[in-house]
TrEMBL record:
<feature type="domain" description="HTH asnC-type">
    <location>
        <begin position="11"/>
        <end position="72"/>
    </location>
</feature>
<dbReference type="InterPro" id="IPR011008">
    <property type="entry name" value="Dimeric_a/b-barrel"/>
</dbReference>
<dbReference type="InterPro" id="IPR036388">
    <property type="entry name" value="WH-like_DNA-bd_sf"/>
</dbReference>
<protein>
    <submittedName>
        <fullName>Lrp/AsnC family transcriptional regulator</fullName>
    </submittedName>
</protein>
<dbReference type="InterPro" id="IPR036390">
    <property type="entry name" value="WH_DNA-bd_sf"/>
</dbReference>
<dbReference type="Pfam" id="PF01037">
    <property type="entry name" value="AsnC_trans_reg"/>
</dbReference>
<keyword id="KW-0238">DNA-binding</keyword>
<keyword id="KW-0804">Transcription</keyword>
<dbReference type="InterPro" id="IPR000485">
    <property type="entry name" value="AsnC-type_HTH_dom"/>
</dbReference>
<dbReference type="Pfam" id="PF13404">
    <property type="entry name" value="HTH_AsnC-type"/>
</dbReference>
<keyword id="KW-0805">Transcription regulation</keyword>
<dbReference type="InterPro" id="IPR019887">
    <property type="entry name" value="Tscrpt_reg_AsnC/Lrp_C"/>
</dbReference>
<dbReference type="InterPro" id="IPR019885">
    <property type="entry name" value="Tscrpt_reg_HTH_AsnC-type_CS"/>
</dbReference>
<dbReference type="InterPro" id="IPR019888">
    <property type="entry name" value="Tscrpt_reg_AsnC-like"/>
</dbReference>
Length: 161
């Protein structure tokens, strides 16, 4: 199935194959990518440039094993706010942005307002983060925390795996 990017160009199976390779290792040489997807180096470069220019490729990064740098645990926190006006939502979002341990935060539908993924060193570190940072944010009515016991699957896109 082909998809159309912001510039009206079609993302085809070659583009998705290139993206899969870059998702696995963004340092893969163009020659290897071309060989793997059956295209010339120039054609691969042009496709990567088009996907970058369109915003489909937003950047290149490294994958970090959080446990290797001291963050042994992941906590999922669900939060309900007292108010849902734009000012409260914006203030809450800004406060979360200032907490480095917050990896992801989603405004969600359902019983809670936010779903937050947090990296911590251990349970004491999480207790400190709750007391010193999260619970200092005005407007939190209720929260529910769950420690991740094991990650069964982790992907940034449906193209991996």
């Amino acid at each position: 199935m082909d998809n159309i990017d912001n510039h009206g160009k079609i993302f085809d199976s070659h583009d998705r194959a290139i993206l899969r390779i870059l998702l696995e290792d963004s340092r893969t040489p163009l020659q290897e990518i071309g060989k793997a997807v059956g295209l010339s180096t120039t054609s691969c470069w042009n496709r990567i440039k088009r996907m970058t220019d369109s915003g489909a490729i937003q950047g290149y990064t490294v994958k970090v094993d959080l446990a290797q740098i001291g963050y042994q645990d992941t906590v999922i926190v669900q939060v309900t706010l007292d108010s849902h006006n734009q000012e409260t939502l914006n203030a809450f979002a800004r406060a979360l942005e200032s907490i480095p341990e917050v990896l992801e935060a989603f405004l969600i539908s359902g019983d809670y307002d936010y779903f937050i993924r947090i990296a911590v060193k251990d349970t004491r570190d999480y207790e400190r983060l709750l007391r010193e940072q999260l619970y200092q944010i005005p407007g939190i009515r209720h929260s529910k925390s769950s420690f991740v016991l094991r990650t069964l699957k982790k992907a940034d896109t449906p193209l991996t795996g």
